[in-house]
């Protein structure tokens, strides 16, 4: 019988009757846990032991928890008179990173700077701050700053280094060796004096000014046209018509924070102001300025010169160039002619001939003396490309005996960076003042790191006659020394820079005023205000004398009516900029205002090109492409960018850092190597490139994947003509049909028997009004909020998972060509697709502090509740992380802590080290894992303001309490205040706009937000 | 005899007359125009506390001598000169001043107050005189604590006596009832014929303990009590985790509030400089201690750490007594400056504490309770004017902290 039966084995062990198998087969449910144990006899950890251990563990943990740790309270030994723990000290200062200037206030707590805010005393930036100025406080606490002087990469004593450097400098001076001091633009008058002193001591020193992003074309053009090598001061606030050819004057171009402020003045509307400027933009890649333009035309870089020439012709000028026309050129010309003397034409080109033409146009339009000021000219962007290129040649030929770098990184940011790196090895004396090891400073012999600007004495002169001062706000963290002090020391001038700067001000600037008789008073006042302004008379006329025939021939030969090849436009992103601050995690995670992409640069391609490649991209899932320029290639992810000119691609600089800190290193690719040099001047465009798609997929971490508003009324907009006829133009109200009352607005129906909170708000009622017309989408508020509220950085992967933590985001919507009325399924997909050259609208979105808050009703533990001051309160210590509230929030503004973002080395940004944590605001809780968080309307600032008022036995004054976002906004688009105070700015604004432009987002669901918006009005003919 | 008596009385009269005359003269001379009205005394009090108190007390010797009876020791013009410029008086060779200087050499010469007007000095002296006449008040009365941490307002011992008396009475009643039952039972047993069957059953019934133990009701009660007790104990224990009421750690320097705040009545604000202006009250920095201790007790071994800290610049690491969790925002100035609370309200009789201990539980319930019960100090503060008006229209109750959002989460948590 057994012979006939088939036998099935479960495995080879059973077949072979392995003793272990027999033993185990008797024991179907083995007692031991499947944990490897050395004790073979007992066959693993017995269950009882496991339970004992478990029990002991639980008991031990809970007992340990009972023991409260002993905490220490450590007072000062000798308390400084003007420092009181927990009370912030404010110092006025000046932010200048070699590129842009902001007059700022620095908030310090217990001797450490924690927040940057705008200084309203300055008539240059007028209280506005840029994204990078806001983020600069975090760079102070960068653990990867150089901690002391280095010699050949090894730590060295300051005195030893000084001795060696002085000896070598003297040696060079004796034998006439050439020394080059390569600096970024310096706008500090006293620093220039220090450099002068240094050059006097070592006369073979030549100063070379180098800017990574060059504006030398403008400087040279002004030299040619007016005999004045300078960047003029622009005043957009006086311009009724603005025409920009590729100049992103709202995002990155020159003194953009100043221009943002000026531009906003012309865009505000209200009961008493029914006119606004008209803005034309002709550009390649969609920029912030382009996104805000009323009329935008996408042109190729190779058409820029011809487009300007055709504008010049349309204005009545004569220039001999091939005829070319682009959409809206003629219209722009008509408008410009109507507003002679009250218009402005700017160009982002660095081509001298193009800029000469721009000058000719502005002369024709009589803009000099009104919107353009060449007397109080700007001191920014002094970089001299020809000088630097000559230096590179000298370096390569070995004619240079000593190089000193200050605030420049040409090995990274110059197209000949590799040559410079090679040539530096031959130079006997190389010194860098860089605060971190970067591509250039890692190649030098001596690193003598400069202080961070918040540790330094600073003076600036951004425009002629406009001075700024700044004092150290913290004791130097590392063993660094201020650049100026090092130069003085090496030049054998034994005076500290503080004395030097004071003396300089006493002999050079004190005399420019007569309000103060004593220098000490003048100094104290200037230091307190952070600014001193003594503008010179700006009425002197300019004489334009240039023969345009040379310009015409240069433009005709370089620019083409049509170009068959693909072209590259190189641009800067609003966050990382030229790449100096790339190691700042706030800036890396700052979503680009246009693409909403973080932690990357990418090739922006036009939708038509994507269609040609048959490329379908959703939610940041994209492919990489190979970009080839000359003999240089790079593989880079692509991003479909509506508004990108046909047959062009865009690539941002500032990424692809090879020697940098852990944050910047390896992020993106370096676009500087594609910078073209034309007539000795760097050009951010290349007219002949090829791009080949690859099959390699890639995910770009974008914070917003929604492209359009898909026909919903989230953003309401109209055009100026309609607005003048009807101030409520563009306002939409959702109505519903009711059996008894017929059609009624949806918001008049409520589940609640009556307005729950209205009668309880006897004290304050905090609210916000956001003007979509003046919001330009710059994102200064995002970083300001991040700094104020200890918002963590989560990194690229988490952003890809839609787990970004910013409390305020700026939603960017494109217009679509699809019919937004048709809600069929097929059409919905079409509505998602943006137009080829879309109109753009920005909408800051944060917690709306609904008075019928959907989140509050679903929280099972009452962790989110309503206050009698109209705030939607979030209580972290009560939250158990059900996330019902986020689920029920129609605005999607709640953020969940998926991880502990502090003390967690998986989030190696700044909250996991003692130094990085110093930037945290001590008045705001650092949230734990598993809790929800969201905009609190800066309740800590509200509470502080109220307490100050109570202490002084008065009501809070309007404007005294501001949220971080409203404070930093350079265009004053965000107005915050007490809606119960009838005299407040917000109450007056709401009263004025209630029946006009004001609306609430998703009004129809009757959440009754405390945040209102004003409609976007475009100055165009619909 | 009579004449002798007369002589004696005459002698007495003379003496009395002379004495009275002398007394009146001396009092005229000494007190002359020292004011006695309340306004001057109050004015003097303010001046004294602002200027003199850091070195002088009325009843005790502090840095400088005790000032009680100063008017008996020196004349007014001398005192005015001295207060205006002590150094000048010493240099003039005045014997009393020289003696004082010798005695208080370690403390140095008193600083002069040349800006004081004569009237101001007089009112200070008036205050000193009045204070000197009253007995030293060594016990500072803190305001009544509205929520004492233990028990109610009645003494616990008294409750114990009442309770034990009550229990004794109950036991007596039980015994009496038992006796009554047994007497009745005996009587009924002797008169069985009077009873019906069912009544007989009742009288013969045995008290069955087993039945009771087996009954569901008893078991249920027992289990309920057991679970209840265990549950209550665990909940009590668990909720007390992290509570540090009574926490009195040993400090690096045995600083006594009893001595400084109690005996010498140094104002809390003198050392805790932040208490009226900022969130934190501030542990005094060493320079504040050294203001006095560079003069007083310069050799004390207890102050060795202070002197070392001052010399080396290394701060003293005090042990933090009051540990609020980081998630709770508490601001001293709001409570002390705006609400006008006394320190003792939360910190207890700190002026009697040799070692500081955490007096209040510092739990959220405790905070909230105070916010429920405390009336807002709204009078005279324009911030509250409209609120008070609105409140008084709708309610007869005074304006409590809870009425202006004192129970809302974002008051303390953000």
SSE order and pairing:
The complex is a heterodimer of chains A (1022) and B (414).
Chain A lengths: L11 H4 L3 H7 L21 H20 L5 E2 L15 E8 L4 E9 L2 E7 L12 H10 L9 E2 L2 E2 L2 H18 L3 E5 L5 H13 L3 E5 L6 H11 L4 E4 L6 E5 L10 H12 L10 E6 L4 H5 L2 E4 L5 H11 L14 H10 L4 E5 L4 H13 L7 E7 L6 H12 L5 E5 L3 H4 L3 H8 L4 E4 L13 E2 L10 E6 L2 E5 L12 H8 L6 H12 L10 H11 L1 E3 L14 H11 L7 E6 L13 H4 L14 E3 L1 H6 L8 E9 L2 E9 L7 E5 L23 E3 L2 E3 L1 E15 L17 E3 H6 L9 E4 L3 E4 L20 E6 L8 H9 L7 H5 L8 E6 L10 H8 L7 E6 L8 H5 L5 E3 L5 E3 L9 H5 L6 E2 L35 E2 L5 H13 L12 H5 L5 E5 L6 H9 L4 E2 L11 E4 L1 E3 L4
Parallel strand pairs in A: 7-8, 7-15, 10-11, 10-13, 11-12, 15-16, 16-17, 21-25, 22-24, 29-42, 32-41
Antiparallel strand pairs in A: 2-3, 3-4, 5-6, 5-17, 9-14, 18-19, 19-20, 21-28, 22-25, 23-24, 23-28, 26-27, 30-31, 32-39, 33-34, 35-36, 37-38, 40-41
Chain B lengths: L1 H30 L6 H15 L17 H4 L2 H9 L1 H6 L3 H9 L14 H16 L22 H35 L6 H8 L4 H6 L1 H25 L16 H7 L4 H4 L14 H8 L10 H9 L5 E2 L12 H7 L5 H4 L16 H10 L11 H10 L20
Name the structural class of chain A: alpha/beta
From the N-terminal CA to the C-terminal CA of chain B, the straight-line distance is: 97 Å
Shape, per Cα inertia axes of chain B: elongated
Strand content of chain B: under 5%
Going across the biggest sheet of chain A, name each strand in turn.
6-5-17-16-15-7-8
Unreliable stretches of chain B: 1-10, 21-31, 138-153
Average pLDDT confidence of chain B is 81
Gyration radius from CA atoms of chain A, angstroms: 32 Å
> What would you report as the Rg of chain B, rounded to the nearest angstrom?
35 Å
Biggest beta sheet attributes of chain A: 7 strands, mixed
Number of helices of chain A: 30
Helix content of chain B: 40-55%
**Alpha-beta content class of chain B:** mainly alpha
| Helix and strand sequence of chain B | HHHHHHHHHHHHHHHEHHHH
